[in-house]
Amino acid sequence: MAQGEQREQQHDQQYERYQGGSPEAERLVFERLAKELMEVQIRNGRAAGGGVSRAFHAKAPLAVENARLRFHDDLPADLRVGFARPGAEYPAIVRLSNASGIRQGDGSPDLRGAAVRVRVTERESHDLLATSHPVSHARDAREFVAFARAMAGARTPLQKAFGLFVKLPLAVGLVTANRMRRTVRAATRHTVTSLAAETYFSRGAVLWGAAGPVRYLLRPAPGTAPALPPDRKDPDFLHREIAQRLARTDVVFELCVQRFVDERRTPVEDASVEWAHAPVVPVARLTVPSQDVDEARARAAAERIDALSFNPWYTTDEFRPLGNINRARKAAYRASSAHRQGLAFVTPEPLRNRLLAPPASAAFGLLNRYVPWHRLPLPLSLLNLVFLRRTLRRRNLIDTEPREAPPKAQPVPEPPPERLRTERSYDGTYGDLSDPRMGAVGATFGRNLKPDYRPGLFDTPNPVTVSRALLDRDRFLPATSLNVLAAAWIQFQVHDWVNHRRHAPGGPSVEVPLPPGGAPWHNTPGGPAERVMRFADNVGVEVPGGRPPVLFGNTVSHWWDGSEVYGGDERTARLLREPDGGAGLRLEDGHLPVGPQGIPLTGFQDNWWMGLSAMHTLFAREHNAVCEALRAEYPSMGEERVHQTARLVVSALIAKIHTVEWTPAILATEAIDLALRTNWQGPPRNWLDQLGLWLFEAHSLKGIPRTLPDHHAAPYSLTEDFVTVYRMHPLIPDDFELCEHHFGQRLETVELADIQGGAAEPRIRKTGLANTLYSFGIAHPGAITLHNFPRALQHFERDGEIIDLSVVDLVRTRRRGVPRYNDFRAGLHRRRIRSFEELTENAETLTRLKEVYRSVDEIDTVVGLFAENPPTGFGFSDTAFRVFVLMASRRLQSDRFLTVDYRPEVYTPLGIDWVEKGGMKSVILRHCPELAALLPRDASAFAPWRTVRPTADGGSDD
């Protein structure tokens, strides 16, 4: 840690005490309280009959941009810090407001507030926030939010009384509620006749450089004229009074500070105690110049100011806020501001759901001890999945991104770029407008389970031994309900979602010792025989305290944004487009242009083979087809807008295909098909399903694209556990038969090595896209099980290294701290296994498991997931499925372009229609219409296609 940071923390520790014992523990509390304030905004908005407004200080009788703050010439020497210099003068924005979060008449009992933004330079400003009572009704942020929730939406005297005398005591206790009520009564019984005649107190402390903590206040300058008796029936009398006053003269306040004395008389953490023993020291004058605040220019300025977000943390380190309430303000004000501006969202849970869901969830948990969810009758199994997902959302979303704790001062943030409100960035920034880095390239992988990092067991048991005994493909085991397009599809998707950065060859590497007696390994082409396997290590993210690298960044964005097609940065994206800024993607005779290594130019090129080439070619063509349709429908639309809209459409179509076609194909049960279609379209129109969701999870009564974004328990990211369950390499066969689709004639039989890397593109151009799709459509992939890992992937060259991917999969999972199988299973709320026999009934597998592992707790995650007997119809294990249940809806629900911004105004009506009516079959037939008769009639394009049987004369026998 830098010396400056150490001094800063030591300085803070003189005055501040963190709730929960640490800045990080306190941060988690504040994040929860911020969400609760967003719910307060919604209730206040409903009460006011409008949309979401400020959580507090909703109505501003005065807002001006042309105020000035000037420090006194005789500013005390020890207060001359930063921008506080004798005689220095700065422009300021001033907003004087009523404190309530509901816009009401100025005569209503209420506090008043002042928000001042002092502009020092283009990048430096200081927000000063104050309220017209010396102390807060709340000691800390928890009490403050409890009061806000108790009074949310209260307009009538009866509603306010119920909040004060029933809700508040239930939230904070009777003694605390009594104290808070007394403070509020004392603050609001004061009659306000003019905002210019009020004194405004910061209530919380701020640092004033080396002078230490101060509280500040704004009081009327000497000579301020008293107000005339107001017409209290006029709901806007405070505005009229100050408008009339400003029409005649300036309005001037003195900025004063009170210095910290000691923790008893001037506490920093307790905002409910007045600093009565601290002398008031004037330091500056704030002048609002005489003007007509009702003219058009002034009204426009007031509207601009109303749209601003004030936050005491918009300052510099020398003036950072102090104390619990002030520390909470950064997260709270940021969240409520983003909510008000439509950048962040919250979906309150109905009371019936909050009351009924927990006991129902517990009942299903008890039932599942005896009857697994997939063996229940269909309506119950669907409801069971709802409660399983609720549990997983609450307990299995772990944020790993290093967060700011304690909060730090910052400049006023720039608003989101206007163009990124309606188009995706290439690197994933601004996927969430309120948190620009969420899910972007470089953002860390989250966790569904706490990491279990055990370096002492990295090589126990030896991963090469595990691979040879349990993963080696003894014979090809097909998945007969699928075709090879399903295998190509999932790799196509994984390339969009996840990629760990590796060190360059020759850099830090992993060494795996070979077991005794085995053949040696060549780590590089033509390299020496060695007794270790060696491959590039992942690049970890540094974490505080020099802890081991269990945190890794994603080199692609976490969002479902088609980055495998379009690229993850603007330079790549521009390279892939038609020349001269054309909207389409570059194609050569319908195929992707080839790069210098023989691999096509596209968004993601790793691990290239003919199946990937088919997918990339198909969706590059689809992008161009969308562009052509947009140009025809909207002739005035520019090429950049056409391109960006087509990106949105194709990305959403890909997400829909994966949700309602690929996943139900690999999890072939009626319950999963209905559940995933519900994710996209909403539940079936039968009263039982509708009633169940209405009672327990009303949020699911609509398809996710018709809801608001919701990250649930943690900011959005994909997870290391998600990466683990998507290790589906057994899907890849070792050899393929390429056929032509007209007569079913075999063209050639090839091995994976023959259609891999630079060899893929010549082969697909020779074969043709239609024949390639047909060949893969009639062939089965491998089953996701033990003893079925592709031989071709156990010895292939990548980046100048020869690797065994089966060994790499085991090693990566261990080194990334993913728990071993039994802990993984238990962490996903399944009963632990106590014996190898509980995992599998296969006698040969049992023997090998017992030879390799000393106990069931040693079993590797990947091995256990492959060994499980899956539910009927499932292509993979129930344990892996639980990560799918959680993350399948999360990838949609978190993404604003698949929720609140999935609308005609952004996608165009044509774009929405394209996604809603489209699917994998429509994509294939748009570009290969000759395949129409071969696609499955009553199944997805990922089910086996009809095979054309060749006849002796070279024709076909249908």
What is the compact description of this entry?
This protein is 37% helix and 10% strand. With 958 residues, the chain is of the alpha+beta class. Among the domains are: 3-340, Catalase HpII,  Chain A, domain 1 (Beta Barrel), CATH 2.40.180; 455-556 and 728-733 and 780-891, no CATH class.
Q: Could you explain the architecture of this structure?
A:
This protein starts with a helix and ends with a strand. It is 37% helix and 10% strand. It has 958 residues and is α+β, with helices and mostly antiparallel strands. Strands 1, 2, 3, 4, 5, 6, 7, 8 and 9 form a 9-stranded antiparallel sheet that branches. Among the domains are: 3-340, Catalase HpII,  Chain A, domain 1 (Beta Barrel); 455-556 and 728-733 and 780-891, no CATH class. Strand 14 (735-739) and strand 15 (746-751) form a beta hairpin. It is built from 29 helices and 19 strands. Residues 1-12 have low confidence and may be disordered.
Give keywords:
single chain, 958 residues, alpha+beta, Catalase HpII,  Chain A, domain 1, two-stranded antiparallel ribbon, 29 helices, 10% strand
